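Cross-check.
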Amino acid sequence: MIPKIKKEITKFLKTNPKPKDDQIHKLAEDLNINKHKFEKYIYELLAEFISNPVGKHNDIPDSEFDPKELKMGIEVEQEHSDIIEIRKSITKDHLAECSTYYTRLNKMEKECEDKKKINENIIDDYINKYLDLI
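Predicted model, tokenized:
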């Protein structure tokens, strides 16, 4: 595939994640490419993406990871993707570096939430004391 076309397809799909056929055909026309040939380029790009998944640790079987951590990770990584394979890949990368990554992340997020609540309470107390003085 011609790099310029690949770049155009990628740019287009980033701004139009669920394009309709007429949008694809319009882009092909704008690029002066036969719409059927252009669709072939899109399928090639998709096949390339699917056959080269993100992540460095995809070859490690799921059974090598704590199932609880793997499940937590796949759920947490929804913030990055709706595609479960991508979420699992991100999760495996984190767990390969730290086997308790998501337990620790959960603990850290709770601590931050608790600190935020404490700070909000301090501010509320300060405001109430100030208002009592008025």
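The first helix runs from residue 3 to 15. The chain is about 70% helix and 0% strand. Passed to J.P. for a second look.
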